[in-house]
Amino acid sequence: MRLSRYFLPTLREDPAEAEVISHKLMLRAGMIRRLASGIYSFLPLGLRALRKVERIVREEMDRAGALEVLLPLVQPAELWKETDRWDRFGKELLRFKDRKEHDFCLGPTHEEVITDLVRGEVRSYRQLPLILYQIATKFRDEIRPRFGLMRGREFIMKDAYSFDADEEGLDRSYRLMYETYERIFSRCGLRFTAVLADTGAIGGEESHEFMVLAETGEDVIASCPSCGYAANLEMAEAVREYFYPEEEERPLEKVSTPGVRKVEEVAAFLGVPTWKLVKTLLYLVDGKPYAVLVRGDHELNEVKLRRALGAEKVEMADPETVERLTGAPVGFAGPVGLSGLTIIADKAVAGLKNFVTGANEEDAHYVNVNHPRDFKIEAFFDLRNVTEGDLCPRCGKPLELTRGIEVGHVFKLGTKYSEAMGATFLDREGKERPFVMGCYGIGVSRTVAAAIEQNHDENGIIWPLALAPFHAALLTLGADSDLLQASERLYQALWESGVEVLWDERDERPGVKFKDADLIGLPYRVVLGKKFKSEGKVEIKPRRGGETLMLSPDEAVSFLASKVKEAQSS
Ligand code: ATP
Ligand code: MG
């Protein structure tokens, strides 16, 4: 591709709309443009990177024996009603009516559609196992679309679904997909880890998320360097026990705390450590009000809360509900004197003496609160996020916390969908049984963004070779015809030997060309300039740093071709 003919609108400055690196760099490198909130167009360079991910995913899914299909984005409400998800899915499901007033939605995921397809066509255990997949557009009306491709509303996902005759079959399919994901992300050239994940409100037996490691990731991973345990925050069990010093219970006292609200502020104002504060968080759990207590220095995990109560839905109470329940505005809730709701607490609250809580009154707190003297806690659960210093639930050694980006998710569904939708087959004995299913997603467009979050510097992207839109940038510095002709010959020779090269033959200053090359971040920069005219040498510089090579054009071709082959065969 010749840059002068390419559609590559690069930007010098960071666009105001972008908060995270990958989003900034993808806009600046002319890979994507925003059409509406969470909805992006892929420009040629961006699309090439996306296709690289797709190709690796497709090759590895095919190798695993999965079969590619393409399912509709537009789905009828009737299917979603069969599994009850038409009502339960919430606002992320974008619903609309066609001209005949029939209800439809845009597919955020395809369990219903695939189960409908398979129930109509697969009758016998002899046709199992079956794994079907697609690489296609999904639509989720996310509340907070952000970070560009990282959390879009419209995005590209690879979703796969396995159908087995029994649990053992599902175990095998799950393993196979897990291993396939390891191959996919290794081939992408990304550093990643698989972590235990929550299986959601109903059904689901086992689940792992694949995380690309990046300091800027939204997710926190708890892992144990000693035994290899790794889980996301929703799953990482907090096993540390707290032994608080023996203290006399002092008399309960209400103190005035004008204008102080936040935990740190209250602690500083009262001269106590933050762990002596207990936060009272008000939630609606399947519609019922709960007060949930966690220590001031700890964070509640809503998924743990949902799991602990065996609930389907937990939502933070809105300000009106908080006022109705506590008689005070948000920020002053406390357990003493609360009624009409259930009080539960994180385990770390047990045994805490003379702590501080809100007083259900604006600008006031209680000090020397004690349980069970002053109020009643119905039950203690593990409800908090693990933090630095927490111990591995498997081996007891210290956990490490790192950040990651969820790029893939494998999930044992069991018979949740097949039972709800009457999707059955005849087993060996001629008995009708529901399919045992698994589902497996990869955020294809998110993977492109994650690759950039993990691989960049202050000048731009540093593509892993396997995902780079082109393998190399060829820069011609100068406009004389000899140099241009030699460049063109090299350009042709590189393409012919399998090296995808973007040729910057624009009439621009070298500084501009170098800047753009760094921004776009192709793995190798090949320069024809003064050294070529004097010595016939081409300069090759890896974008990631390391040795700069001076080679003849022929040597340059074989060097780059071998690098590309290496990456493709790994
Ligand atoms: P998240 O927790 O990030 O919202 P999820 O659990 O809703 O993701 P899944 O339903 O497991 O996601 O979807 C499979 C994969 O699709 C995810 O692992 C992720 O890589 C990708 N994905 C999900 N939502 C989005 C989105 N809004 N934008 C881009 N990719 C997404
Ligand atoms: Mg997920």
Secondary structure blueprint with pairings:
Elements (H helix, E strand, L loop, with lengths): L20 H8 L3 E5 L2 E4 L1 H20 L3 E2 L5 E3 H6 L2 H4 L6 E3 L5 E4 L4 H11 L8 E10 L14 E11 L2 H21 L4 E5 L10 E7 L5 E5 L6 E3 L20 E4 L6 H8 L7 E8 L2 E8 L6 H7 L5 E3 L2 H8 L15 E5 L8 E4 L5 E6 L9 E3 L18 E15 L1 H5 L3 E3 L5 E3 L1 E8 H11 L1 E2 L2 E2 L10 E5 L4 H16 L4 E4 L5 H11 L3 E5 L1 H6 L2 E5 L6 E3 L1 H17 L1
Parallel strand pairs: 3-7, 15-17, 17-20, 27-28, 27-29
Antiparallel strand pairs: 1-2, 4-6, 5-6, 7-8, 8-24, 9-10, 10-21, 11-12, 11-21, 13-19, 14-15, 14-16, 18-19, 21-24, 22-23, 25-26, 29-30, 30-31
Helix pairs in contact: 1-11, 2-6, 2-11
Bound molecules: adenosine-5'-triphosphate and magnesium ion.
The site of magnesium ion has 3 residues, from strand 21.
Question: How is this structure best described in words?
Answer:
The chain has 15 helices and 31 strands. By secondary structure, it is of the alpha+beta class. The mean pLDDT is 95. Strand 14 and strand 15 (288-295) form a beta hairpin. The radius of gyration is 29 Å and the shape is globular. Helix content is 28%, strand content 28%. Helix 1 crosses helix 11, helix 2 packs antiparallel against helix 6 (167-187) and helix 2 (44-63) packs across helix 11. The strands form eight sheets. Strands 3, 7, 8, 9, 10, 11, 12, 21 and 24 form a nine-stranded mixed beta sheet that branches. It has a five-stranded mixed beta sheet with strand order 16-14-15-17-20. It has a five-stranded mixed beta sheet with strand order 28-27-29-30-31, with helices on both faces. It has three domains: 16-236 and 401-453, BirA Bifunctional Protein, domain 2 (2-Layer Sandwich); 253-381, Alpha-Beta Complex (YbaK protein); 470-569, Rossmann fold, CATH 3.40.50.800. It starts with 20 loop residues before the first helix and ends with a helix. The structure holds adenosine-5'-triphosphate and magnesium ion (MG). Residues 109, 140, 142, 151-152, 155, 157, 406-409, 441, 443, 445-446 line the site of adenosine-5'-triphosphate (ATP).
